[in-house]
Amino acid sequence: MSTEANTEKTIVLDQDGHLANLEDWNEELAQDLADHEGIGALTDRHWEVINYIREEFEKNGDAPSIRKLTKESGVSTKELYQLFPKGPAKKAAKVAGLPKPKGCI
Amino acid sequence: MTKFVTHDQKNGEEQATAAPKPIEKVSIIISKGSLEEVYPGLIMANGARMEGIEATIFFTFFGLDAIIDKRMDKLKVATVGNPAMHIPTMIGGLPGMSAFATKKMKKEIEKLDIPPVREFIEMIHDTGAEIYACRATVDMFHLEESDFCEQVDGVISVGEFYEKSAGSQIIFT
């Protein structure tokens, strides 16, 4: 019997629904977070965005602006809103295990 | 299975009061056409979409300049009659002052990664926000639908604007 699939993990989120402990994040948890946010199965396009904003966060300590993201990740504004409906900046940050983005744009 | 809990739930505390209902929809009216009076409305519309809030922008009076194809790239900062600019009105009125202030502001805006007006309107429209021009102003200024950039979803009356704003918070700028 596989224990992994049946093990129940409890993960703590902050008040805004982002991971309270960034080090809890891994790729498997990203899918669980996506399910929790109602995003569904993560596709390669979701991962383009997730990997890009994680890289930017590592470099700059904040998620990139949507403008920067769409220019540099190759995912257009329209697609971004389809991938992460109802607030792409926050939703993508949540799935990527990052705190709420600070920027206005 | 992963179970997600918030800090409060983890500590076994019940939230004392129900959180206020989040805003679901905003209708932003942009009524002025100087650069510094167009941007706030655009930033608020884009910000709303980023939060998953539906947004509609209604351009009226001189605000229409921001969606008129031939004018939207040439919006200027007003340097006269604005005490917060800290330029005396007589100096602000000198030739070249508005162009100078505009250049400076555009540079600062770019530094914040806020796009120029045309790109910003495209971006906001791509987020699913709707963009309308005011019928009365279009008639008053003798404009045609073909004068507008392609992102404009239509020329509508005030009545139609209110209809489209059902359930919205209306923000006038």
TrEMBL record, chain A:
GO terms for molecular function: sulfur carrier activity. Its main location: cytoplasm. Pfam families: DsrC. Keywords: Cytoplasm. It is found in: Cytoplasm. One of its GO terms (cellular component) is cytoplasm. The active site is at 104 (cysteine persulfide intermediate). It comes from the Bacteria. SUPFAM superfamilies: DsrC, the gamma subunit of dissimilatory sulfite reductase (SSF69721). GO terms for biological process: tRNA wobble position uridine thiolation. Belongs to the DsrC/TusE family. NCBIfam families: dsrC_tusE_dsvC (TIGR03342). This is tRNA 2-thiouridine synthesizing protein E.
From TrEMBL, chain B:
InterPro entries: DsrE2-like (IPR032836), DsrEFH-like (IPR027396). Gene3D superfamilies: DsrEFH-like. Signal peptide: none annotated. It holds the Pfam family DrsE_2. PANTHER family: CONSERVED WITHIN P. AEROPHILUM, PEROXIREDOXIN FAMILY PROTEIN. This is Peroxiredoxin family protein.
